[in-house]
Amino acid sequence: MRKSRSASNALVSKSCKCSLVPTAFDINAWARQYLARFFWACWCVVVLLLGTVAPNKAVAQPAVGDRFTDSVRTEAGYRIPLPAGQWEATATKTEKEIRHVVLANRDADAVIPYLVVRYSTKTITGHWADACGSNNGSFWRSRHGTASSQLLHKCQFVFVDKLPRQTDTGRDRWTWENLYDGFRDASGALRDERLIRTFLNVTMYRNDFVIIDLFSRPSLYAQTVQAIQASITSGTKNDWATEFINWTAWYIEALKLSVIDKRYTSISPFKPPGSPSFAAAGNSAAPPSRQPPPSDQQVNADLQAALRAQAAVSRSTDEDARRKEQAALEQMRADAARRLEAAEEARRREQGERDRLSADLQQRLRIEEQERQRIQHEKEVLAQRAQQERAERERLEAEVQRLKAQVEQDRQPAAVTGQANRKALVIGNDSYRHTARLVTAREDARAMADALRRAGFTVTLQTDQGEKDMRATLRRFASQVQGGDEVVFFYAGHGVQLGGINYLIPVDVNGENEAQLRDDAVPLQRILDDMSERKAKLTLAAIDACRDNPFQTAGRSVGATRGLAPTTAATGQMIIFSAGSGQRALDSLGPNDRSRNGVFTRVFVQEMSKRGVSVDRMVRSARSEVVRLARSIGHEQVPAIYDQVIGEFFFSR
């Protein structure tokens, strides 16, 4: 159509170069010339009308097989710019007055092999949604200076995606149904490749809108979609990502000028880093082009034409014609100089506009990045604050429960008469899995449990307990203790001191290093603190764990060599260690010893059976007997006693 109009205008220009004044007054000749020129004038008018009216006829909608280079002309009368290339329509559909067109780039090794154009066939008058407000799985988005409250929306999303296919299950039916055939001729490698998909949308309230879906292949230039995604989301964009984001910003501005403002603006093809056109382009995306100013070549051509005309003047023999042609030559020179100056001024304006748009784009990107970082920081602060509030709430709830239990206990105090409030926990660990096994700990625990039952205690007996079971047993026992109870805790097994703190060792503890041992072993002081918090009237803790440190072996040195560290007892508590600090408790008095119990436990059980002897006297008597037996075989073992008991207590009256 443009060729028809240009041809018509050329024909009119050629046909109308005539003069209506005859050279001599001859009525007949003048009449003939006048009639001839009148018919030429009529012909000029007809051609002008045809050249003007013909291009305005309706444009057919794009169809499969149509070819495009730089734009798609719509039936609504405006043109949608395309990146320069050999584009072919491979699929179309119209649904709800929205035209969908799939375009395949037939250029070899095109960095954008496919794109999808969607536009309205009539002005939007119904529901109008903010596309940028949706959460659609993109890893980067931009509004390009617009806001949800404005009438004009410019929106961009960037995804990692593949070419659509019929078997996809997560795609929107309205968007892609009946368009899958448009991607069928893609190669198998391209169909399986992960691409950078870019969604561009320009919408004006109660006006036209356009959507462009771009599928780009960074792999053609040794780039991966993972690297591009990481560089964009982290804010440290690599060369490919920076060039692509800048180019799409120019593209969305060209869409706004062409579709909304109805001022067609072309867009150059994307020139990725590494391509031959990248260096030639000055390492920056080209801005939306306007009507180009005259080029230097065109101006030089005009000057050459003027020079040729000047040579013709020198050969002319007609002086008057020479003067006229000389004046025309001077005019052509002046026009050429003016056009050259206008071209230079246009170039300066274009460069200034390009610099301004680039600076605005960089400023917007910086502002968006700062806003993203601010929002991320606020989220982290809020999450930390919520975690602190949650921990404080749990602590307060636990405190409230404890106070409620205390109030209930104060309202209904347990009877302290007789021996009904006597409770005992007895643990014996022999079968250690990762260190030296013991031979008397279980028997010591059973003997102590029998003696305590005879003394009127409700006994909980456990043997060979791992970490989780041992901690659970201690929690259950602590929950059973009430204010005013008389409590006995007996432990036989391995124990170790770390940094002055005594730990009881479950049978499954490995103890590769002190940090692991501190986490897995059970602190003795925690057990005593639990009894104190439960307000037990008497707590007697007998610990037969003063043996050689099982973790002091070749290649491993954890804790002190042997024995437990000195400790302190709270009010109402008495603590007895089977041996003093740095001493080892005896399991046997020699090869002829027939007892199945260790020296400390057998003496302690024997002394408990004596009636009418207070606990403090009984404990000291047991210590003296243990010292005597140990020295009989040349060994030093002096049980350590830490006593803060107020009043007298008896096992048997």
Write a structural description:
The protein is of the alpha+beta class. It starts with a helix and ends in a 10-residue tail after the last strand. It has 15 helices and 19 strands. 30% of the residues are buried. Strands 1-4-5-6-10-9-8-7 form an 8-stranded antiparallel beta sheet. A 6-stranded mixed beta sheet has the order 12-11-13-17-18-19, sandwiched between helices. Strands 14-15-16 form a 3-stranded antiparallel beta sheet. The longest helix is centred in the middle third of the chain and has 93 residues, at 319-411. It folds into 3 domains: 1-57; 67-280, no CATH class; 419-643, Rossmann fold. Strand 9 (195-204) and strand 10 (209-216) form a beta hairpin. Helix 1 (2-15) packs antiparallel against helix 2, helix 8 (296-315) runs antiparallel to helix 9 and helix 10 packs parallel to helix 14.
CATH topology of the largest domain: Rossmann fold
Query: What's the CATH architecture of the largest domain?
Result: 3-Layer(aba) Sandwich
Terminal Cα span? 123 Å
Total of DSSP H or I helical runs spanning 4+ residues: 15
Percentage of β-strand residues: 15-25%
Give the strand tally. Answer: 19
How would you state the average pLDDT, rounded?
A: 82
Q: Major sheet, described briefly? A: 8 strands, antiparallel
Structural class: alpha+beta
- Uncertain runs are 1-25, 51-57, 284-296, 412-420
Strand order of the largest sheet: 1-4-5-6-10-9-8-7
Estimated helix fraction: 40-55%
Work out the radius of gyration.
49 Å
Which outline best applies? rod-shaped
How many domains comprise the coordinates?
3
CATH class assignment of the largest domain: Alpha Beta
